[in-house]
Amino acid sequence: MAEEAISIKGTRHGLVIQLDPDKDFAQIKEGLRKKIESARGFFTGAEFSFQENVRNTLSGAQRHELETLCLEFGLVPQQEVGPKRAYRNSKSGAAGEYPGLIPTNGLLPEEDGIPCLLLDQSMRSGQRVEYQGHITVMGDVNPGAEVVATGHILVMGNLRGIAHAGASGDAGATIVAYHLAPKQLRIAGVVARSSEQKRTGEPFPEAASIRQGRIVVEPFITKTDRPPGKKTHVRA
User: Fold this and answer.
1) How many other C-beta atoms are found inside a 10 Å radius of the C-beta of residue 42?
2) In 3-state terms, what secondary structure has residue 219?
3) Residue 99 shares a structural domain with residue 26
4) Quick one: average pLDDT of 54-77?
5) Is the pTM higher than 0.85?
6) The pLDDT of residue 5 is above 70
7) Number of domains in the chain
8) What is the mean pLDDT of residues 152-159?
């Protein structure tokens, strides 16, 4: 927060927009616009709220401007996050085996009835999560961490560890991350390792899927909105 006017944190209740009270409003508004634009549609449809102290930092009119900006990008407002909505780890059922795991329905499309497991924290080296269904990580998957799902995997942060989607053999599974720089990707029985080519510029959401027997990675945006120069690349 020392250098950026805005930061966005993914939680199990949605996105929480945090701002630096030492920045002026123009910097805050422009920072929010750039932050959402850099996500290239990744936040579209996500519920959002502002950190609790926003009322003491911004006027009602300024807050309304930020809310309107979020709505323009397809974000959905929710009630203010306060003490009654403190973020707690679930310790019941299968989730209790790993702090921060919360079984949930509806976070990912579930036309097939597959459940989704929500991890409300980042994963450190040495940690491993395996689930019969979809997995969403509301944070980073750091080097040395591993996520294994029989369905899709969604990482609302940096994916730098190992991700294995479609672990039971589903070649139609996908892996999506806000910043995709994994040590290894696996979808069903197909394996791809990290590319040696260094990424330049701002990170943007990407999706990995199987195409013609190989894992391909491409921007996680619609074809009509795809910026020039963001080409599909193959990892083998």
Assistant:
1) 20
2) strand
3) no
4) 85
5) no
6) yes
7) 2
8) 93
Domain end, chosen from 30, 60, 82, is at 82
Query: For the range 145-154, what are the long-range contacts, defined as Cβ-Cβ under 8 Å and sequence gap of 24 or more?
Result: 147/123, 149/117, 149/173, 150/114, 151/108, 151/114, 151/116, 152/108, 152/176, 154/108
Domain boundary among 82, 117, 140: 82
Beta carbons within 8 Å of 3's beta carbon, 6+ residues apart:
none
Are 103 and 162 members of one domain? Answer: yes
Q: Could you tell me the CATH number of the domain that includes residue 106?
A: 2.160.20.70
- Which of 6-20, 69-83, 144-158, 192-206 has the largest mean confidence? 144-158
DSSP-assigned beta bridge partners for residue 119? 101, 137
Query: Is the separation of the CB atoms in 75 and 48 below 8 Å?
Result: yes
| Same-domain pairing of 52 and 124 | no
Domain span at 75? 6-82
Token reading at 30: 């422009």
**Nearest Cα to 180, choosing from 196, 158, 156?**
158
